[in-house]
Amino acid sequence: MRTSGPNTLDPVQGSTQYDNRACSMVYQTLLQYRYLKRPVELVPLLLAEMPEVSDGGRRYRFRLRNDVYFHDHPCFPSGKGRKLVADDVFYSFKRLADNGNLPKAWWLLKETIVGFDEYRAEQNEVEEFDYDAPVEGMKRINDYEFEILLKQPFYRFTYVLAMFQTAVVPREAVEYYGPRFSRHPVGTGAFVFDRWDIGSQITYRRNPNYWEEYYPEDPGLNKDGSEPYPGYQEDKEMGFYVDAGKRLPLVDRVDLEFFVQAQPKWLKFRKKEVDYTIVPAENFEEAYIKRTVRLKQEFADEGVRSHAEPLLDMIYMGFNMEDPVFGGYDEKRKWLRQAIALAVDWQEWNETFYNGLNIIYDGPIPPGLEGHPQDHSLPQAYRGPDLQRARQLLEKAGYPNGEGLPKLEFYVSRGERNPEVSEMTTRNLARIGVRLDVRLVDFSTLMDAVRNKRAPAFSFAWGSDYPDAENNLQLFYGPNRSPSSNNFNYDRPEYNVLYEQARVMPPSPERTKLYEQMRDMVVEDVPVIGSMARTRYYLIHDRLRNFKPTEDFFNWPKYLNVKQP
Amino acid sequence: MWAFVFRRVIYNIPVFLAIVFMVMWILSYRDPVPAMMGKNASEEEIQSKRVELGLDKPLAERYVTRLKEIVLLDFSQELWTMPGLTVGELLRQAVPISLALTLPALFLTTVISVCIGLISAYARGRWLDRSLVFAAVLGMSISFLVYIIFGQYLGSYQLGRLVNRPIFAIYGYEPGIQNWAYYMLLPVMISVIVSMGYNTRFYRAVMVEETTQDYITTAWSKGATTSKIMFVHMLRNAMIPIITRVMITLPLLVTGSILLERYFGIPGMGEALLNAINNNDFPVIEIFSSIFAGLFICSIILTDVLYAVFDPRVRLQ
Amino acid sequence: MSKLQRILNSREARKLFRDKIAVVALVLIAGYLLIALLLMCGVLPPKAYADVVGPSNSRGLFLSENAEKRYEIARTAMLGKVKRALQREDVEVALDEVHLGWLRVAEKPPEELKSIVEESLELQRQLKAFERLDDDPDAKALLTAFEQKTNQLVAPLSGADYFMHNAALLLGTDAQGRSILFRALYSIKVAIQIGVVTALVCVLIGALLGSAAGYFGGWVDYVVVWLYTTFSSIPNLVLLVIIAYAFTTSGSDAKDTLLPVYIAFCATFWIGTCRVVRGETLKLKQMEYVQAAKTAGFGSFRVLFRHILPNTSHLMLINFSLLLIGAIKSEVILSYLGLGVKGQPSWGLMIRDAGNNGDVMTGFFWQIGTATAFMFVLVLAFNILSDALQDAFDPKHL
Fold first, then answer.
1. Would residue C350 count as lying in a domain?
2. Residue A266: per-residue pLDDT
3. ipTM of the complex
4. Alpha helices of A442-547 — where are they, by DSSP H?
């Protein structure tokens, strides 16, 4: 993968996709996504069954599997891995609350579990964080059964239980290693951690004591001959069900290799030194015929197969709504932002930097989720380029041809091809007379500028944390303003009310309606110009079996197999 | 001599203090915390992190703490971006890797360019000399980056395709002497080619200077053979500039080569340092800079001492 | 005899001019300087180097492209843009907005354009059915027809526009479809600017501090030596990167986007000159004429500026050209790290883009080749010149 590697192997400290990948090898969560199934579906992992929900969605009752052992490790007496119990789950949740662990994912459980926020505030005050102190909403019934009480019936809680940050860790290992725990993971997963060469690779080996988990069974066609899920037939043809029912994991060793440069990664794939790769946009035309988006014959002859995976993704340009010139809710400011939105040429962006493969869509909800507009477009959206209308709106806003308008400071992270993208944006906006002052900064400065509301405009990409549009809509919820996740500082009372209603609702047509209302508000006010969702093209060598790429979860290496030569 | 060394050390203490301060002072203009905390952190979490890292304290106080750690050779500070890894561990991991790249490169560069310098000086003014000098100038006029991009393309990709098996790694690193050639030889060669231009010219000039000296004329008149004059008389006397140059370059070796390490995926010090700068990992930058400065100062002093050893005319005062 | 004539007639100058290669180098440098000056006067409109002028990654010298590429070029040039413009209500205005570099939409009534677009799209559909375009004669014929059809959308060029359009495509285009030739040309200005400013400032600082340290000795010397030891004891790269970072972040007035580069280079590059000039001053101080001037009661500053500094001018000249090379070459590295030039083209950015975009891997050498060639000639010329200068003024210099 294209990164200098994960920062940590401690789930509570993790935040990036790379942390996720590296942690998911070793650690396990209560729930997981069913492999191969699309759209994604949650199934139990460490649980014996799906939690029982009662009390109008506020009371969750869990039953753990009773055959799960931690990896063998000197931190346990006698060196043998101990059995997983309910207290381990509570302990792992509580670690998210302990500021001493430098957690990055507290927001997942913030204001969710009864008594947990109070517990957190209390324990962070005192000298020693007491993991044994009780939390009202966490009730242990016996070693394998427990209950969790929520403050409100937050629907997203079940997704949180599948996120790697809530994975279960053994207390013994944490205490054995102290702060070095983040480099010496001990979990329950199908693989044990072997070695980490900073900046180049992590090696994992098969967990010899892995509990009895099996490759998903072939569901077979429905009685009426229809597919049990879309894409089933194809999976069947690809041989994804050949290993059905086999005990996991299927391979003895997994190496995660990290690349900062696209070029070496691509070369290494071509030399068959890595089993799969995401096709760098730069090399797309080398592997595919762009005209038909089909894999070239010479690649197919080598046994390479291709997979296109759409992402829950939102590439956008955002405004700070509190900016005195470009922010604000009155007509004139709105016109100004609308004008700027109309000058941006998404088509050019897509064609030049993504080979025209991305999906351009209106509003903040990525394709594949409820509330995403049909055909990706909304008639009322301000999607450019429409220079004539942009100029008119700009004039109405009081800046004919951009006269009198100060330079728009535009913050962009300097990584990858962003410098080139910002050159294109500057060019686009110059056509209506809006001048950009591009600030190419490193990522930390960008974050800093956005959080301190210093950046009037900025460019970002948001990858959904879980497959629910709520994750994108919370970006515009007033109380989440900077320094929280609402980077736009968008705050409209009507919107906030709608959001509060929607977040406690299970999926339903009514909720989708609320999502659409919120989406349309954002489209009209233009706190954000966008958006674009990427599609990842994977190339996979023949050797690698059972690999159905996904970016929603990362515990799939346990299902992988390799073809014996 | 010890008095001289002692005096030079004392003399360089303010230099060292200033370096640590300068690095910390420039860094103090950046706020690393928000980025570290990720996209979902609250203001309160950021503040507590700041306190945790000690960034709420004034610069002077942090300076004193850091100095104390450095003087006591205490490198057990954890990396900010990778909790659990100490700076000491990082250095122990990364510096040897960098050295595996830079030491052979320096050695080869010096040996080859001294030889070429000798040949060139010997053939001074003739076409061989001229073409060597011109080749050096040509080589110097191309950007390092271009060498790397094409070196990687030709050396590991095209060559690998030509013989249908990998000769040089494109990317990555594995420890162990048996893997050295596969991962390191190509970067080393690129590095040698890049630095060859400057070095050849330098050593040629040194040798030319030596050929005009009296002792060479004397040796000639005594009927010594050409090879004896070149390799025994001249080389020995040219040792001082050679050693000076090598000594001055030595501390630079621990910094590795950012560009080469980046392009070839070698997890050395250059890469670690650039990552630290990108991610605002202050402990790494500050401590590495001070160690480097220490080495640099030592090498200057050592050079002076070596002068005296190799050239009895030089006296340490 | 004017001063200039005296300089030109000096022994060193005559020696320099006898070296034919050095004269060629001088001429080349003069050429580059002239181009830089012209560019500073705004000879090349920003449109030429900043705007998209053609298809992405097209080859230079009007070499023919392979079939897939020809298809891509025909598809992306005008077709999509005209199609979108025709869908808008204000068709006339929208059509007028469409342009690609110097190319504009043919002046035909919208209905006619519409039918051309539709016919082109039909051809495009047919082309998509082929697995390969380059070996099937039917496909080849269709492709040619497709190209001709889409070409009908473009207004023919004449005069200056024609010249500029072809000049822009002479050495091909980069991934964004911008002219490689014009970008490389414009980079001359950037390179000369960075080189001259850095070298000038560094030589000035270095010479002043160095001569002062050498001449006055004592605490002045101590402070200067301390200063340059300090600067040189920080890893060069750390210093460069940290300074560049610090100034790109905090500089509120980013109007002159080269400022961080200047500062980063000046902070690291002055040391060499300072050291050399200090050494030379120490030597000159012992000279009889300096001693004489001193005993004659001239003030220290007068001695320093009238007798010592002018006699180090050859060192300054040599250092100037060495620093210039250093700055131009370092710009590439800084730009690669994303800390260099911004908002305008430079060779460093071009080389970086070529590396990032996988140009080399896919065998597209036009961008990296052009940037390297332009830079190579300039740096080579300066290298030769500084060699010749050294030979002329300071034959014993190591």
1. yes
2. 82
3. 0.84
4. 443-451, 470-473, 493-502, 509-525
